[in-house]
Design goal:
Structural class: alpha/beta
Number of helices: 10
Largest sheet: 8 strands, parallel
Radius of gyration: 17 Å
Distance between the termini: 7 Å
Helix content: 40-55%
Strand content: 5-15%
């Protein structure tokens, strides 16, 4: 494929064994231009916000996203709005949302309220679909986005989740490109567990992803239908990567090199 130079971001999921501070440091020391931040409401404090904000600014990094807001049945969770506020304070562009809310109408209503809160700080809420969430397909996600009535709510595409829920790159062709503020990126075998095998789907998503080019997902076709300048969050959750590269800087550097080589 032709050389493509999107903004590349070290996804928070690459570093589940390290703090957000260590993730930012690893991204900076391995020359990533952008980074994703994991928000844990149980441990995040105002001091965390200040430290992350300053580390990102000092390193000249882009904070591509903060994650994850997980919608659940019941009333709005104040922690979700706190996550958006933390993201705004550190300069994050997007906030990742997934859902266990079984009612699509309530999911749409919650997304709309989150989007309104995020828009005040120039952030975008992005809904991700996956076989192990209540939003199990790209069509289900699009229906919820339409019901939310907010043009600023984004649709987050993960090539693994797209493939494992029966989707294909061609499904994106008719979608307004504005729906895609960024995308995730990884590789995997062409086929995997069926959507009904939720434990295996989760295991693959958390531990078995592959470096770009080491699998058989239609990554070239996917990039061809996404906006040409779309930032990519390299979401390589992999037990092999974690075990093989326990040092966070080395892990980040190896992943960046592999991704850049594939893009070239």
């Amino acid at each position: 494929m032709a050389t493509r130079r999107p903004l590349l971001s070290l996804a928070a999921g690459v570093m589940p064994d390290f703090s957000p501070q260590r993730t930012v440091a690893a991204a900076a020391q391995s020359d990533w231009p952008a980074v994703g931040i994991w928000y844990d409401p149980a441990t995040w404090t105002p001091a965390t916000t200040i430290e992350i904000r300053d580390r990102i600014a000092d390193a000249g990094l882009v904070a591509l996203d903060i994650e994850v807001i997980w919608l659940k049945p019941g009333p709005d969770d104040p922690a979700h709005f706190a996550a958006i506020d933390a993201g705004a304070a550190i300069g994050a562009r997007n906030v990742l949302v997934v859902s266990s809310e079984s009612d699509p109408a309530r999911t749409a209503e919650k997304l709309a309220r989150l989007s309104s809160h995020a828009a005040a700080s120039g952030m975008r809420v992005c809904l991700e679909f996956a076989a192990f969430t209540a939003v199990g397909t790209i069509d289900a996600a699009l229906a919820i986005l339409d019901a939310a009535g907010c043009e600023e709510v984004g649709l987050l595409i993960d090539p693994l989740h797209l493939a494992r829920t029966g989707g294909a790159p061609g499904d994106l062709a008719a979608i307004d490109p504005h729906r895609f503020p960024y995308a995730q990126f990884c590789d995997a075998p062409a086929s995997g567990p069926p959507p009904s095998d939720v434990p295996s789907i989760i295991h693959e998503a958390l531990d078995l992803r592959l470096m770009p080019g080491d699998g058989a997902l239609p990554l070239t076709e996917l990039l061809a239908v996404l906006p040409g300048d779309i930032p990519l969050s390299v979401e390589l959750r992999s037990a092999m990567l974690r075990d093989g590269y326990p040092d966070p800087v080395e892990r980040a550097r190896v992943l960046l090199t592999a991704t850049q080589q594939w893009l070239r």
